[in-house]
C-alpha cells in the first residue's frame, strides 16, 4: 500500500510540475504582439487556461492527499531499531575433536633433586 501511494505521489508531483510550467504567466499577453498567439491553437480558441487550471487543481488535491497519507504512514512506522533487540544465538554445532598441534608444548622444568641445595640468590652489591 505504501509503495502504491508513493508511486501516485511521484506521478502527481511530475504532472503538477509540467502543468504549472505549461501555464502562461501574467505577462504572456505581450507575446501575442510578436506572433506568440499561434501556441494557443493546440488547446482551442479559449487557450490552455481552462484545461490547465482544472488539471492543476486536481493534481494539487491528489498531491496533498498523498502527502498527508505518506506522512501519516511514516509516523505510524515503528521507531525501534533492530539493534535494540537482543541477539538471537544459534545452538552450537557439535564440536569435533581438534587435531593435535603441530608443535609440541614446552615441558615443565624437572623438579630439583632432593639432596641438592636450592640455587643461591646473589646478594645485592654493596
Describe it.
The protein is mainly α and 126 residues long. The protein has a domain at 1-25 and 48-77. It contains 3 helices and no strands. The longest helix has 28 residues, at 49-76. The radius of gyration is 42 Å and the shape is rod-shaped.
Structure, briefly:
By secondary structure, the protein is an all-alpha fold. It has a domain at 1-25 and 48-77. Helix content is 43%, strand content 0%.
Distance between the termini: 91 Å
Biggest pleated-sheet summary: none
Provide the helix percentage.
40-55%
Overall mean pLDDT = 74
Number of strands: 0
Supply Rg: 42 Å
Low-confidence stretches: none
- Rough shape? rod-shaped
How do the helices and strands line up, and which of them pair or pack?
Layout: H1 2-22, H2 29-33, H3 49-76
Helix pairs in contact: 1-3
Entry keywords:
126 residues; 3 helices; single chain
Amino acid at each position: 500500500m505504501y509503495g502504491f501511494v508513493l508511486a501516485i505521489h511521484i506521478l502527481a508531483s511530475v504532472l503538477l510540475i509540467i502543468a504549472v510550467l505549461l501555464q502562461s504567466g501574467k505577462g504572456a499577453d505581450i507575446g501575442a504582439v510578436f506572433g506568440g498567439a499561434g501556441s494557443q491553437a493546440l488547446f482551442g480558441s479559449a487557450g490552455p487556461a481552462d484545461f490547465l487550471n482544472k488539471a492543476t487543481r486536481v493534481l494539487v488535491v491528489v498531491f496533498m492527499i498523498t502527502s498527508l497519507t505518506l506522512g501519516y504512514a511514516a509516523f505510524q512506522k515503528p521507531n525501534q531499531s533492530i539493534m535494540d533487540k537482543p541477539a538471537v544465538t544459534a545452538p552450537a554445532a557439535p564440536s569435533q575433536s581438534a587435531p593435535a598441534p603441530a608443535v609440541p608444548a614446552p615441558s615443565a622444568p624437572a623438579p630439583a633433586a632432593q639432596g641438592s641445595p636450592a640455587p643461591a640468590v646473589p646478594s645485592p652489591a654493596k
